[in-house]
Design a protein that fits this description.
Strand content: 5-15%
CATH class of the largest domain: Alpha Beta
CATH topology of the largest domain: Rossmann fold
Oligomer: single chain
Length: 650
């Protein structure tokens, strides 16, 4: 059997366009002798189709288009597996449709109905046959391989998890060199074909790099990452085919793969917004310079425009010198990249807001004015405005940034400021695009100082409170600030668990408070690609929340499970106390029946006296030759045994 993996990029949800592209890929695959074509998972619904499948006519439009496509593929003589989201019991499920002989077969739903029909059965990998080869479909090999039906020859794995820089396994073929997925195929003794999508689907980004493993876990075929490809491979069970050497496989490098993910995001986002060009503000700093390089890599220099806005609030010779250096860096960068540069004369922000104090009010007004300049340029050029905001800006400076127009997309919105230096170094390996003075710790420190100033400026507090905040933040290095944010956001550590809290607990608590307080403003910032384990697009706090995590101090953290355990112990202790009380009452009752005075005796004394008398009774009975408390004991008048008759009667 010969399989074809269509590693293609299409506009999310363009049903007719996607079906036409699948048909064209099927023609190419058929000409190469393929029996089965497999298409990427996120094409029709992306990675979060919940709202889409709730639309009344979405499923109808999807199935109608697939039915037409199935007829056209039948005429070509090739089958296809097409993943697409559907609603099952009002829940979104990524179905795997088999297009065969003009029919559209929902494999997962059909397989579940043949078993018990429950929703849980949807998670078992369905099995079908093509050209004598038994094929299973899974979206999670680690979960499904152990329950794989016997006799399967090939496992299809349409990758549905988007790129995460911290998870090497999401880099598809680049993860094989370190053993990811290889062991699953080898241990189960089946072939495995992974189709990795390429391109951006809303905030999710995929990097391509599809591959095929034989039943010994060797990579026998691989598609290039970061670009479209059609990978065609023979599946021959029990036959050893030539395999790619480990050195021939791409190796995962976090900065390189992250840069390509951001490039694909910019390219596809600009296209989805109906434009071919981008415009961005050149501020002469690391983020804006790197964003310009990224836009050029994604769109080409002819489609990128830089905007340089002068500043009028430089009121000392030192500040004027810095302003000259800033503008020269921006002009040099535009010339190096070969992009168009638009310069706008500075506006006196302090005069516009009728304020003499140049500090806070002027800075806020300047941000808004520069946003207006950017918005006007984007409208005039019909271009997409690209923001240079980082994840550090999103976390700490959202209130100030959201006060004006920041752009339509923010490619660095899920990348911390301190990571930009390493991205710039990686990009400069392919050619010195980012000016060397900006690829330094000093440049990072300058930008972090601006972010901290913006965070303080946006704080709804008194001047004295802002002064206290500045005092706490001043000693922190950029790596420490981003380290606190990373620990809190990506690893969900509480304040007490963050390493810096041991030496600067107040500063850490302040950072977490600023992150929480910026939630309402953060929702007004432009969308950003998801390239981390905890992007802001997926992690939201209630924007009206007044609570901040200040840690538990020296106290033992309280949990609901601990309360349940404490109540269980209380019930057990109460039962024991109740048992002791009942035992004491019984002992008292028996003692009174035997004529033992109990007024001045506690329960233990009563029990001791009873045990002493019972011991005497046993000894006496043994001497007389009959069991104690038995029917053979001397009878009292009325037929009742003497001594301890209460026990024998009850």
């Amino acid at each position: 059997m010969r399989i074809a993996l269509a590693q293609i990029d299409m506009r999310l949800g363009d049903i007719e366009g996607i079906c036409a592209r699948i048909e064209s890929q099927a023609r190419i695959a058929r000409d190469q002798g393929a029996d089965l074509l497999v298409t990427p998972a996120p094409l029709f619904g992306g990675t979060a189709p919940g709202g889409l499948i709730e639309e009344r006519n979405y499923e109808h439009a999807l199935l109608s288009a697939l039915a037409d496509l199935a007829g056209r593929l039948a005429a070509l003589g090739i089958d296809a597996v097409v993943p697409a989201p559907v609603s099952v019991e009002h829940m979104p499920v990524l179905e795997a449709f088999l297009l065969r002989e003009g029919r559209t077969v929902p494999l997962r739903s059909l397989y579940a109905s043949r078993r018990t029909g429950s929703l849980e059965e949807m998670w078992f990998p369905p099995v079908f046959e093509v050209a004598g080869t038994r094929i299973a479909v899974t979206y999670d090999p680690a979960r499904d391989m152990p329950v794989l039906a016997p006799g399967c020859d090939l496992v299809l794995f349409p990758l549905a998890s988007s790129f995460d820089a911290a998870d090497e396994a999401t880099a598809a073929v680049a993860s094989l060199a370190d053993g990811h997925t290889v062991g699953l195929a080898r241990e189960k003794g089946v072939w495995l074909a992974c189709l990795a999508p390429v391109g951006a689907f809303d905030e999710a980004v995929f990097l391509g790099g599809s591959f095929v493993l034989d039943d010994a876990g060797r990579c026998v075929a691989a598609a290039p990452p970061f670009e479209e490809a059609l990978l065609v491979q023979d599946i021959e069970r029990g036959k050893t085919l030539p395999a790619l050497e480990p050195l021939e496989l791409p190796h995962y490098r976090r900065e390189a793969w992250t840069w390509e993910a951001l490039r694909l995001y910019v390219r596809d986002s600009v296209d989805a917004l109906g434009s071919t060009g981008a415009v961005l503000t050149l501020a002469g700093d690391l983020p804006s310079s790197l964003a310009a390089v990224l836009a050029v890599d994604a769109l080409g220099p002819r489609n990128v425009t830089g905007l340089l806005i002068g500043r009028s609030d430089m009121r000392t010779p030192a500040l004027e010198t810095l302003e000259v250096e800033r503008t020269e860096r921006a002009r040099t960068l535009a010339q190096t990249l070969g992009i168009r540069l638009i310069e706008r004369a500075p506006a006196d922000a302090a005069r516009l807001i009728d304020r003499d104090a140049p500090a806070l009010g002027s800075a806020l007004a300047r941000e808004r004015l520069e946003g207006l300049y950017l918005e006007d340029a984007a409208f005039e050029l019909g271009a997409v405005a690209v923001s240079a905001l980082t994840k550090t800006d999103f976390a700490l400076a959202a209130p100030l940034a959201a006060g004006g127009y920041t752009g339509a997309i923010a490619p660095f919105g899920d990348v911390y400021l301190t990571q930009l230096e390493f991205l710039a170094r990686e990009r400069n390996r392919a050619g010195a695009a980012v000016p060397a003075p900006l690829v330094t710790l000093n440049a990072v420190e300058d930008r972090m100082a601006a972010i901290v100033a913006a965070a303080l400026a946006g704080a709804p507090a008194s001047a004295a409170y802002r002064e206290r905040m500045a005092h706490l933040m001043a000693p922190l290095e950029p790596a420490q600030i981003d380290g606190v944010l990373e620990a809190h956001l990506e690893r969900s550590l509480a304040l007490d668990e963050i390493p810096l809290a041991a030496t600067a607990p107040d500063a850490v608590a302040l950072l977490l408070m600023i992150v929480r307080a910026g939630e309402a403003a953060r929702r007004r910032l432009p969308p950003a690609p998801m390239v981390s384990a905890a992007p802001f697009a997926e992690r939201r706090w209630p924007w009206q929340l007044a609570w901040s995590d200040t840690g538990a101090g020296a106290e033992e953290p309280l949990t609901c499970a601990a309360l349940v355990e404490a109540e269980g112990e209380r019930f057990a202790e109460a039962g024991e106390e109740h048992g002791r009380l009942v035992r004491s009452e019984i002992m008292g009752l028996v003692a009174r029946m035997l004529g033992i005075p109990t007024d001045d005796m506690d329960a233990d004394d009563v029990e001791g006296e009873l045990m002493r008398r019972m011991q005497q009774a046993f000894e006496s009975a043994a001497e007389e030759g009959h069991p104690p408390f038995s029917g053979g004991h001397p009878q009292a008048p009325g037929g009742r045994p003497q001594g301890f008759s209460f026990f024998s009667d009850n």
